[in-house]
Amino acid sequence: MCITVKQMMQIEENGHQMGFSRKFMMENAGAAATKRLVEKLGDVKSKNVLVFAGLGNNGGDGLVIARHLAGYGSSVTVFLLDQPDNIRSEECSWNWNLLEKMESVKLLTGGNFDLLNNLDKFDIIIDGILGTGILGEIREPQASAIMFINKSNAFKLSVDIPSGVDPDTGNRNSPHVTADMTVTFHRMKVGMPKRIDVCGEIFVEKIGIPPDAEVGVV
């Protein structure tokens, strides 16, 4: 069964109220996406990985992926699309603070794309820019990040949904990410089956939300 973004938000809230915190959801989501990526690509040790992270929960998922890939021995660069003080999610901020303590992950902030001087060096790019919370037109620096991703020959993984794609309708904004693989969480979103052309291979991963959280929602 596919669900809407509104339904997913209610399920998450119900799970949170039951005591399964959003921090656990984010950790499980990032860990599950990393596992799928490693299963798909095999050994990722010494692979150059670029994680584009927005300021909300989708970006937070990307930060978790960055940490896990560093644990696999990947060379990880995280590009936060603003300054850390502007992060909008408590869970995202918590994961950013953790990465700041890790010398094994390179952190870039502020949306200055000149810092990414060699596009071809990245083997894997993680799209954690917008996710299911997309609203309206794509603005800067998100638009430039999306175009940067699409120019790259790297393997592209989108977290939850390719940035710029409406998860409820499947409508594509301009620009939008064209991914090789998308890992979405808990249940498929209703617009995704219509957008295999930009989602690539789709995986649906459970993140530990109790089934009771769906009661009255689906």
TrEMBL record:
<keyword id="KW-0630">Potassium</keyword>
<dbReference type="InterPro" id="IPR032976">
    <property type="entry name" value="YJEFN_prot_NAXE-like"/>
</dbReference>
<dbReference type="GO" id="GO:0046872">
    <property type="term" value="F:metal ion binding"/>
</dbReference>
<dbReference type="InterPro" id="IPR036652">
    <property type="entry name" value="YjeF_N_dom_sf"/>
</dbReference>
<protein>
    <recommendedName>
        <fullName>NAD(P)H-hydrate epimerase</fullName>
        <ecNumber>5.1.99.6</ecNumber>
    </recommendedName>
</protein>
<feature type="binding site">
    <location>
        <position position="163"/>
    </location>
    <ligand>
        <name>K(+)</name>
    </ligand>
</feature>
<keyword id="KW-0521">NADP</keyword>
<feature type="binding site">
    <location>
        <begin position="131"/>
        <end position="137"/>
    </location>
    <ligand>
        <name>(6S)-NADPHX</name>
    </ligand>
</feature>
<keyword id="KW-0547">Nucleotide-binding</keyword>
<feature type="binding site">
    <location>
        <position position="160"/>
    </location>
    <ligand>
        <name>(6S)-NADPHX</name>
    </ligand>
</feature>
<feature type="binding site">
    <location>
        <position position="58"/>
    </location>
    <ligand>
        <name>K(+)</name>
    </ligand>
</feature>
<dbReference type="GO" id="GO:0052856">
    <property type="term" value="F:NAD(P)HX epimerase activity"/>
</dbReference>
<keyword id="KW-0479">Metal-binding</keyword>
<keyword id="KW-0520">NAD</keyword>
<dbReference type="InterPro" id="IPR004443">
    <property type="entry name" value="YjeF_N_dom"/>
</dbReference>
<feature type="domain" description="YjeF N-terminal">
    <location>
        <begin position="8"/>
        <end position="215"/>
    </location>
</feature>
<keyword id="KW-0808">Transferase</keyword>
<keyword id="KW-0418">Kinase</keyword>
<dbReference type="Pfam" id="PF03853">
    <property type="entry name" value="YjeF_N"/>
</dbReference>
<keyword id="KW-0413">Isomerase</keyword>
<comment type="function">
    <text>Catalyzes the epimerization of the S- and R-forms of NAD(P)HX, a damaged form of NAD(P)H that is a result of enzymatic or heat-dependent hydration. This is a prerequisite for the S-specific NAD(P)H-hydrate dehydratase to allow the repair of both epimers of NAD(P)HX.</text>
</comment>
<feature type="binding site">
    <location>
        <position position="127"/>
    </location>
    <ligand>
        <name>K(+)</name>
    </ligand>
</feature>
<comment type="similarity">
    <text>Belongs to the NnrE/AIBP family.</text>
</comment>
<dbReference type="GO" id="GO:0016301">
    <property type="term" value="F:kinase activity"/>
</dbReference>
<dbReference type="GO" id="GO:0000166">
    <property type="term" value="F:nucleotide binding"/>
</dbReference>
<feature type="binding site">
    <location>
        <begin position="57"/>
        <end position="61"/>
    </location>
    <ligand>
        <name>(6S)-NADPHX</name>
    </ligand>
</feature>
